[in-house]
Amino acid sequence: MKPYLLVLSLAVIPEVIFAQQTDPCAGLVGSAFGQCRADQQKLQQRQLEQQQKQLQEQQERQSQLAEQQRQMQLQLEDMRLQNALLQKQLEQDKSANQTSRVSANSNASELKSWKSENPWFGTDYAKTDFAMRYARQLEQKRPDLIGRPFLDTVSAKVNDRFGAGR
């Protein structure tokens, strides 16, 4: 009979434990029952608050991650724009270099022609010095003025200053 008691007690004990886990106040009566229920509600309330706090922390972390991702996307877009601007600037520089090579060749013939029309250049120190200083000023004031029109403007200024016949 002892083995049956042992088996019966082993079968009953888990049932009692399970019953206590589902309702720990089940065996109590009166004020003890009321106090137990109040304690259980407080415990459940704290657990609920902890879960809500954890949920809020997770939401905050997700929000921070989303903000970081948005910032990274903005940085990436800025980098793409900078890259595009640099590529465009590089293309313009290449184009300007090619244009300057072409214009340098045409400028050489324009300069020879202008020098032949202005024999004072290189021989008359005062006129040459004035022309060079004025040319630097003119480049800063009117960077769009290039080639023969630029040279003609310089010679006109020299002629105004020193007179055409001198």
Would you write up a description of this structure?
This protein is 86% helix and 0% strand. It contains 4 helices and no strands. The chain has helices spanning 2-22, 30-117, 125-141, 147-162. Helix 2 packs across helix 4 (147-162) and helix 3 (125-141) packs across helix 4. The longest helix has 88 residues, at 30-117. The chain is rod-shaped and about 135 Å long. The chain starts with a helix and ends with a helix.
Number of strands: 0
Span of the ends, CA to CA: 145 Å
> How confident overall, as mean pLDDT?
81
Q: Provide the low-confidence segments as ranges.
A: none
The number of helical segments is: 4
* Count of the separate structural domains: 2
Main sheet? Answer: none
- Over the alpha carbons, how many angstroms does the gyration radius reach? 48 Å
Q: How much strand content do the residues show?
A: under 5%
Overall 3D shape:
rod-shaped
* SSE run: HHHH
- Helix/strand class: mainly alpha
Helix content: over 70%
User: Which oligomerization state do the chains in this entry correspond to?
Assistant: single chain
Question: How would you summarize the topology of this molecule?
Answer:
Layout: H1 2-22, H2 30-117, H3 125-141, H4 147-162
Short description:
This protein has 166 residues and is mostly helical. The chain contains 4 helices and no strands.
Structural key phrases:
single chain, rod-shaped, 4 helices, 2 domains, 166 residues, mainly alpha
